[in-house]
Write a structure and sequence with these properties.
Blueprint (H helix, E strand, L loop, with lengths): L7 E4 L9 H16 L3 E6 L9 H14 L8 E2 L4 H13 L3 E4 L3 H8 L27 H6 L4 E4 L1 H8 L4 E2 L7 E2 L9 E4 L6 H11 L4 E5 L5 H11 L6 E5 L19 H6 L4 H8 L4
Parallel strand pairs: 1-2, 2-3, 9-10
Antiparallel strand pairs: 4-5, 5-8, 6-7
The structure holds glutamic acid (GLU).
Length: 285
């Protein structure tokens, strides 16, 4: 069958630590869903944060996934090799007048929000940007970034005015979910040290790779509002979404890459088998 007609799933880890049980669940679920519908399964290495990504973690990811019994298409897309694709998307938003260069420090934002308990916060709990640089707009913003500017922000009000109402997404097992990108405010889409944010890279890559089904953890549920907005602005196709539950540790807390005890390689060294991992995350073959 032609690739274009196949449902396409992906697992997209960031190589800044060892994979743990939560990653195993996400990777196995994507793999199983792809296999069950005769679809494609891709691995994408999300290493745009070159300060934190490490080649040894990338090698460990492939080793752990192969040990779990997964197979994926090659070549693997590594985001650090595609900054040009993200720059083109940013330039397009810039040409639409939707970006501005911002040189505020975290402390400038904290000062604006200080003593105001009602100051709006994004879904990650970060105070929304007060718009200090929005009105100093100089264009093209992407050139300012290249010339040493600090960050590029999306002018959320302008973006919403362009896309209008009614942005939503198809979430597995639910009615359509209404997207609410405004809750992210004037989000940063690029920084001097990281020339593409996760948000811009993920929507560009999902489109370029023909991903039809984005299956990822609940922790990224709210980010989907922003992803839908960027897809609409950039004329990218809309994938289906499925935000799965997170695997919790014995105390009911979210697993973190820093908790070495749930790293797949630690469990493997203790004698766990891939079947044990599947049972622990609730995915029996
Ligand atoms: N790279 C992200 C992470 O490791 C996942 C991104 C996604 O699945 O959209 O959390």
């Amino acid at each position: 069958m032609d690739h274009d007609l196949k449902r396409t799933f992906r697992f997209a880890p960031s190589p800044n630590g060892y994979l743990h049980l939560g990653h195993a669940y996400s990777a196995l679920l994507n793999f199983d869903l792809a296999r069950d519908c005769g679809g494609r399964f891709l691995l994408r290495i999300e290493d745009i944060d070159t300060g934190r990504a490490r080649p040894e973690f990338e090698a460990a990811i492939e080793e752990d996934l192969a040990w779990l019994g997964l197979e994926w298409e090659r070549p693997v897309r590594r985001q650090s090799a595609h900054f040009g694709d993200y720059a083109r998307a940013l330039e397009r938003l810039d040409e639409m007048g939707l970006l501005y260069a911002c040189d505020c420090k975290r402390s400038d934002i904290a000062r604006a929000a200080a003593g105001k308990p009602d100051w709006p916060r994004d879904p990650d709990g970060t105070p929304l940007y007060p718009g200090i640089c929005r009105d100093k707009r100089r264009r093209p913003a992407t050139e300012i970034l290249r010339a040493g500017g600090v960050a590029l922000r999306l002018d959320m009000r302008k973006a919403l005015a362009l896309t209008g109402q009614g942005l939503s997404w198809r979430e597995f097992g639910c009615r359509d979910v209404a997207a609410d990108p405004a809750q992210w405010g004037d989000v940063v889409l690029a920084r001097k040290d990281t020339p593409a944010s996760y948000h811009i890279a993920v929507v560009v890559d999902d489109a370029l790779q023909g991903v039809t089904d984005v299956v990822r953890g609940r922790d990224l549920f709210y980010a989907t509002s922003l992803h839908r907005l960027l897809q609409r602005l950039l004329d990218l196709p809309e994938p289906r979404y499925r935000h799965h539950d997170l695997v919790l540790d014995e105390t009911g807390e979210k697993l973190a890459k820093s908790i070495a005890s749930t790293a797949l390689r630690a469990l493997r060294a203790e004698g766990w088998t891939p079947a044990d991992i599947r049972r622990r995350v609730g995915l029996i073959l």
